[in-house]
Amino acid sequence: MQEPAITPELIEAHGLKPDEYDRILEIIGREPSFTELGIFSAMWNEHCSYKSSKKWLRTLPTEGPQVICGPGENAGIVDIGDGQAVVFKMESHNHPSYIEPYQGAATGVGGILRDVFTMGARPIAAMNALSFGEPEHPKTRQLVHGVVEGIGGYGNCFGVPCVGGEVRFDPAYNGNCLVNAFAAGLVETDRIFYSAASGVGMPVVYLGAKTGRDGVGGATMASAEFDETIDEKRPTVQVGDPFTEKRLMEATLELMATGAVISIQDMGAAGLTCSAVEMGDKGDLGVRLNLENVPCREAGMTAYEMMLSESQERMLMVLRPEKEAEAKAVFRKWDLDFAIVGETIADDRFVVMHHNTCKADLPLKALSGNAPEYDRPWEETPAPAPLEGTEIPQIDPVDGLRALIGSANYCSRQWVYEQYDTMVMADTARPPGAGAGVVRVHGTDKLLAFTADVTPRYVQADPVEGGKQAVAEAYRNLTSVGATPLATTDNMNFGNPEKPQIMGQFVGAVKGIGEAVAALDMPIVSGNVSLYNETDGQAILPTPTIGAVGLIARSEDAIMGEAREGHVAVLVGETTGHLGRSALLAEVFNRADGPAPAVDLDAERRNGDFIRQNRDWIRACTDLSDGGLALAAFEMAEAAGVGVQLDTDDTATLFGEDQGRYLIACNFDSAEALMIAAGRAGVTIETVGRFTGETVRIGGSEALLSELSALYRGAFGNTFG
Hints:
Layout: H1 8-13, H2 18-28, H3 34-44, H4 46-49, H5 54-57, E1 67-69, E2 76-81, E3 84-92, H6 94-99, H7 101-117, E4 122-132, H8 140-158, E5 162-169, E6 178-188, E7 203-208, H9 218-221, H10 242-257, E8 261-266, H11 271-282, E9 286-290, H12 303-308, E10 314-319, H13 324-333, E11 337-345, E12 350-354, E13 357-362, H14 364-367, H15 397-405, H16 414-417, E14 428-430, E15 437-440, E16 447-453, H17 456-461, H18 463-480, E17 484-493, H19 500-519, E18 524-530, E19 534-535, E20 538-539, E21 543-552, E22 568-572, H20 583-589, H21 601-613, E23 620-623, H22 628-640, E24 644-646, H23 651-655, E25 662-666, H24 668-681, E26 685-691, E27 695-698, E28 701-704, H25 705-720
Parallel strand pairs: 4-5, 9-12, 17-18, 24-27
Antiparallel strand pairs: 1-2, 2-3, 3-6, 4-6, 7-10, 7-11, 8-10, 9-11, 12-13, 14-15, 15-16, 16-21, 17-21, 19-20, 22-25, 22-26, 23-25, 24-26, 27-28
């Protein structure tokens, strides 16, 4: 087949700027072949090279005594004691999910699960963080149904419990939804596998499903804005098969136990190209591939298509030669392909052969370590005007609560998570529906808590404070179930970094995240950057999602009870009534003004330590975030099926979103003990009401709990059907 001529139009279609192409010419000293151009495009796009974000990501704290493996591998790894570790990561599948919601979301789940079991871990939990356009937008309903069904369809068939996540709606996502997928697994600390190749002349082995033409150019597509040609990008979306992935996981873990694996890498973005290059780069070796040995499911595939295909459920491995027969038998048993497709070489070369013809011969490190790196111009986000006292509206408290719990943003997510299998594997101790999901560490008395959080409207107003708040809220969610936060993974979703205002949002968020993870001892151990999330120049809200993991060392230390009749409602943390950028302003008054709430990291740590140190007095606990005290008290009461009375009717006190706060339900004598302990610890604490009866009474306003509960639980289904 005649390869196309390299023209400026072809270069642009591959997402390469003219100066980047000039750099390619300088590196290789000649015009690249079509396959070589595709390889450079795959490795140098934003999705794979992080060329706009590397400078700032390096500033994030990534180390700690609990960290076994930080960023740079398939996933991060944190020690949980007793020779065990938790492996976890969050990654985006935004562009594919907007183009083809079901398969985009499904393969996002598949990809993140492979990142975990590639390192030798068996997945034990999944989460997702989803952002959609306004509910009234004509595309939102299709996206919500497709994405939720895709996540459930893949995760349920694979057999991993979905234990948490978040869903939001905002007009800024009308043209570009966000699908962030999280997975975590357990591994023995002496059985961890990494991706760095070692040894010259070692076989490079292809494992799993066959290669097709789906997903060709997917990573490049994910590094570009959308426009009116969006439907033409549908062929770049991968197609998943969760049953094949399940077999791939079992075969991979069985293979690892044989001692045959030197290194192993998931074939994710940029497929065979990225996996081979990364293995060689990390091991300071070259790689030679023979594509005629690649198992293909379509006839006549070219070298270009094989190298850039993102067909799912595939892995690449460097094998101990003496174990070849044993390894092959494992994959044959699981009815999966096993093919030696190349070898490691001593030279810094990436050589691709197809039917005895050299299709690519490139310096391997130039594709990975020497990819472009930009210091993009950025502008600091201007501080918003303060919210004047005369501008703060007063509202009937129960009417305000109704507006929140009846909205798509703050109603129950039951419609979503009931489509996911939350109990498979039988170790889920706390399913979705609250701040953090909890999973038992099988065969031990330990539990792991998982959460994902960000408040994009805060980040838009003040990226530094918004970045800090995303980490702080994740910290509080873990603390609320009694967990000690261990570490975080970040999923940085932003618009076009070539615009200084957008780059300024990114820089500010990284600064805030870095400050918070250092102060709260929650280092970043893995993550993903997704840029160019905009359509026709309209960017999403800056959305740096934070996924976090915490450890409950003994089951008796968990805080997972419910409020009950007669319990006192106790508020920990200082309340000033901050209404800027609040849920109340957004949902009730359609306003997005004022500053984001300030985050006092010293107070966050002090209050979090107080909760964990005094857990014996606490029956139930939740952090205060969107919707403030009113929404937190209602959700705690509704989950327990008992009414609640709050002593104030002041709008700012009820709906303000001051940070660092927790609402506790406990017995009267326990409340007294907490007051004494708080005085000694220098922690602000007060009683704000009690849980009792069958009504929600706030000041002088009240409604039946059953009426509000029906609204809260039915609103999502009523909106999306």
